[in-house]
Specification:
Blueprint lengths: L1 E6 L7 H16 L2 E7 L2 H8 L2 E4 L3 H10 L2 E10 L7 H14 L4 E8 L5 H10 L6 E3 L2 H9 L5 E2 L17 E5 L24 H16 L3 E4 L3 H14 L4 E4 L6 H6 L1 E6 L2 H9 L4 E5 L2 H10 L3 E5 L2 H5 L1 H8 L3 H15 L1 H11 L1
Parallel strand pairs: 1-2, 1-4, 2-3, 4-5, 5-6, 6-7, 8-9, 8-11, 9-10, 11-12, 12-13
Helix pairs in contact: 4-5, 7-8, 7-13, 10-11
Length: about 350
């Protein structure tokens, strides 16, 4: 049995990252590979994913695990960006550098790249991914970012598109996945911060838009938190402001896709809220607080509508929902297309394991 050490963003409260790891873990165990993950919460990772896990702060254990591994996988998810913190790139790119020093085969699977706006960040990506192969990225925008930095990558799709398709059930609500957000750059990484301050206009604007959408579609509103410690309080504040009754849910990694699938249509600021909607064959409105959300909506095509993160964008939610509500067939087509493209990650994993 081979052993692979996974160096991603594992063990956080963000279900999107946990879905990505769950999909990667599935692919590896299907290949009779023993998985060990660097995790922010090793105990939760062991129990939630049934894998070995080591504390991401324990450099001695990480080095020992790399020495013992047959290969190292960096990914997946949006690791290659300096948008959230200047510490993000050094944190993630030190792992492939150490793997290279220890002469371990290192691959990067299902990554998102960009924005990388600083000269230091671009240098870190060039140096960190030197000698890493194969490299797959989840969209063409990420491939172009790496191409400009002299790094060859293949476009596949987000690893979460490789998860099982949810069993079809009643789609009888408008599912909403919002998140706190401020466009201001931050010094500390996301996991080290308190909830990002949401501007005061957002809650009443979202409440008005969702009330209007519920009236237009004749659907109740159901909030689904993809990061409960951050999203649920915001959802509660919006629900209190709405005149339409709303329900709220904070699911776990193993039932969040099913929870989103209960929506006839989905509104999401969360990247993996849109992925989950597409897996379920549901049209979605993507609120583009980050370029990765716009890129995903572009990939999905007619089954998704991208709106800007702004007062005007939030106010446009009802019209956008009406425009895509009947596009379920397009959502199914997008699902099959992206799932086929995602299988390129399987080919990359096989290439890595043969090294």
């Amino acid at each position: 049995m081979s052993t692979v050490l996974v160096a991603g963003w594992v063990g956080s409260s963000n279900l999107g990252d946990e879905l990505v790891f769950a999909a990667l873990r599935n692919k590896l165990t299907q290949r009779d590979v023993q998985v060990c993950a660097m995790s922010m919460d090793p105990k939760a990772t062991r129990s939630g994913h049934t894998v070995r896990a080591i504390d991401h702060r324990r450099v001695d254990r990480i080095v020992a695990a790399m020495r013992a591994a047959d290969a190292v996988i960096v990914g997946g998810g949006g690791l290659l960006q300096d948008e959230t913190s200047p510490f993000n790139l050094p944190y993630h790119l030190l792992r492939p550098i150490v793997g290279r020093v220890l002469r371990r085969p290192v691959g990067a699977i299902g990554l998102g790249a960009g924005p990388v706006d600083t000269r230091l960040g671009r240098g870190l990506v060039r140096h960190g991914l030197r000698g890493v192969a194969p490299v797959t990225v989840r969209d063409d925008e990420s491939r172009q970012v790496l191409q400009h930095l002299g790094i060859a990558a293949r476009t596949t799709a987000d690893l979460a598109f490789g998860l099982p398709v949810p069993v079809a059930g009643p789609a009888d609500r408008l599912v909403v996945c919002l998140r706190p957000w401020s466009p201001a750059r931050r010094l500390m990484p996301v996991g080290s911060r308190r909830v990002d301050p949401t501007p005061p206009w957002f809650v009443p604007a979202a409440a008005r838009a969702l009330d209007s959408a519920a009236d237009a579609l004749g659907l109740p509103v159901h909030f689904v938190a993809l990061q409960a410690d951050r999203d649920h309080p915001l959802h509660e504040a919006i629900a209190r402001t709405m005149r339409t009754p709303a329900t709220l849910a904070s699911p776990g990694v193993h039932d969040v896709v099913d929870e989103v699938a209960r929506g006839a249509v989905v509104v999401s600021m969360r990247y993996h809220g849109i992925v989950a909607a597409t897996l379920a064959g549901r049209p979605s409105v993507a609120v583009g607080y980050s370029p990765k959300v716009d890129a995903l909506a572009h990939d999905i095509g007619r089954a998704a509508r991208a709106l800007p993160w702004s007062g005007e964008g939030i106010a446009a939610i009802p019209d956008a929902l009406r425009a895509i509500a009947a596009n379920g067939a397009d959502a199914l087509e997008a699902r099959e297309r992206l799932r086929a493209r995602e299988r390129g990650n399987d080919d990359a994993i096989d290439d890595l394991l043969r090294r």
